[in-house]
């Protein structure tokens, strides 16, 4: 027992002496340190003693991780990889070129179909109005035919049925009101004057758009936009003054149609944002709502008695061919508007404006040729100036 205690005491003393020596500023020689160090068992006992004198602190576990080479810490390689441009295979480039060509061909077909349908509609519409001067009923039949065509398309699965709600129809209502007024006013105008004159006056629609947006909505436009209005207004005025068969009702109908369609566009842009309805279905819903709005007014203005009397007169003068005229003008009215809305889904507003300007030129020229409309050189000059101003407006607006 005495020997065991003495050995422990000796080891403890040696441990304290070792720790004291370990904290001296002057380092011991290697031979002296080896003589003073205790055995292995005593060295393991020294750890709690040293932690009591000076606590051992671990800053972070990450400090024990091996350092990575500096090259891996830089982003030079990633930066160079980001800046590198992949080389496209020839097959991919050829496929993209083919897809772009197909897209241009599709837009070209849309434009050609749009213009052709519009020309055919105006021709048959004018034939019907010459023999049957009831523009309110004619406008109603156009909307009714288009609505019936779309209902059949939805029922048979030819066209996808749109998903609408009450909010959709609320936002569509002011658009439908403006569309109804513009449609009836344009039909009234064509019943009184030549088709070419109506479309010359309707080419002044951009002037109404700028004036309404500036004074009612507070929008401002660049100076070239305002300058483009000068040839539009001057050309329309020159064409109206030199028109041989000028009629005030026809002139005012075209002017009201311009104003109504401007408000239609404004309401459509404001109310239909975020609505997932295609152009074809959007116009179908617009036609149905416009039909509900127009029908009671058409009955009140003209009435079934006038319609029946005029129908008998037209059938006696023209014959059964008159029925085909009525059907054709109703069908082609819906088709050309439907294609125009489908075109707007595929192209930019600038391209659409240019296409609309070219459409008016084709309608004016074709109607003059088919109906042998007498045109004076000054009248043709006014029409050309107005259409040129419309083209300049579409360029400066964008």
TrEMBL record:
The chain crosses the membrane at residues 107-124, 136-155, 223-242, 248-267, 279-301, 321-337, 377-394. It holds the Pfam family TPT. SUPFAM superfamilies: Multidrug resistance efflux transporter EmrE. GO terms for molecular function: organophosphate ester transmembrane transporter activity; phosphoglycerate transmembrane transporter activity. Residues 105-394 form the Sugar phosphate transporter domain. The keyword Nuclease does not apply. Keywords: Chloroplast, Membrane, Plastid, Transit peptide, Transmembrane, Transmembrane helix, Transport. It comes from the Eukaryota. GO terms for cellular component: chloroplast membrane. It is found in: Plastid, Chloroplast membrane. Its main location: plastid. It is a multi-pass membrane protein. InterPro entries: EmrE-like, Sugar_P_trans_dom, Tpt_PEP_transl, TPT_transporter. This is Sugar phosphate transporter domain-containing protein. The lineage of its organism: Eukaryota, Viridiplantae, Streptophyta, Embryophyta, Tracheophyta.
């Amino acid at each position: 027992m005495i020997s065991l205690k003495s050995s422990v005491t000796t080891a403890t003393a040696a441990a304290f002496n070792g720790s004291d020596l370990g904290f001296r500023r002057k380092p011991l020689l290697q031979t002296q340190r080896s003589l003073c160090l205790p055995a292995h068992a005593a060295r393991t006992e020294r750890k709690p003693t040293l932690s009591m004198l000076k606590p051992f602190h671990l800053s972070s576990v990450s400090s024990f991780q091996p350092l990575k080479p500096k090259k891996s810490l830089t982003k030079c390689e990633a930066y160079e990889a980001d800046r590198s441009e992949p080389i496209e295979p020839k097959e991919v480039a050829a496929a993209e070129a083919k897809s772009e060509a197909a897209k241009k061909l599709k837009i070209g077909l849309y434009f050609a179909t749009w213009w052709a349908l519009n020309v055919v509609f105006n021709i048959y519409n004018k034939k019907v109005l010459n023999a049957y001067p009831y523009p309110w009923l004619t406008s109603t039949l156009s909307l009714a035919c288009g609505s019936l065509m779309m209902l059949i398309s939805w029922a048979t699965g030819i066209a996808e049925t749109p998903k609408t709600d009450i909010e959709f129809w609320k936002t569509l209502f002011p658009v439908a009101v403006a569309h109804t007024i513009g449609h009836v006013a344009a039909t009234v105008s064509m019943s009184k004057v030549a088709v070419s004159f109506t479309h010359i006056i309707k080419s002044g629609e951009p002037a109404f758009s700028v004036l309404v947006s500036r004074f009612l909505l507070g929008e401002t436009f660049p100076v070239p936009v305002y300058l483009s209005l000068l040839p539009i207004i001057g050309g329309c005025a020159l064409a109206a003054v030199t028109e041989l068969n000028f009629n005030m009702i026809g002139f005012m109908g075209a002017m009201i149609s311009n104003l109504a369609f401007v408000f239609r566009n404004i309401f459509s842009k404001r109310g239909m944002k975020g609505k997932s309805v295609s152009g074809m279905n959007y116009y179908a819903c617009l036609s149905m709502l416009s039909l509900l709005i127009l029908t009671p007014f058409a009955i009140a203005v003209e009435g079934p008695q006038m319609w029946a009397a005029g129908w008998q007169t037209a059938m006696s003068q023209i014959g059964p061919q008159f029925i085909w005229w009525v059907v054709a003008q109703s069908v082609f009215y819906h088709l050309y508007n439907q294609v125009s809305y489908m075109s707007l889904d595929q192209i930019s507003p600038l391209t659409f404006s240019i296409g609309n300007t070219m459409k008016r030129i084709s309608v004016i020229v074709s109607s003059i040729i088919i109906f042998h409309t007498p045109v004076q050189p000054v009248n043709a000059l006014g029409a050309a100036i107005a259409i040129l101003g419309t083209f300049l407006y579409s360029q400066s607006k964008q």
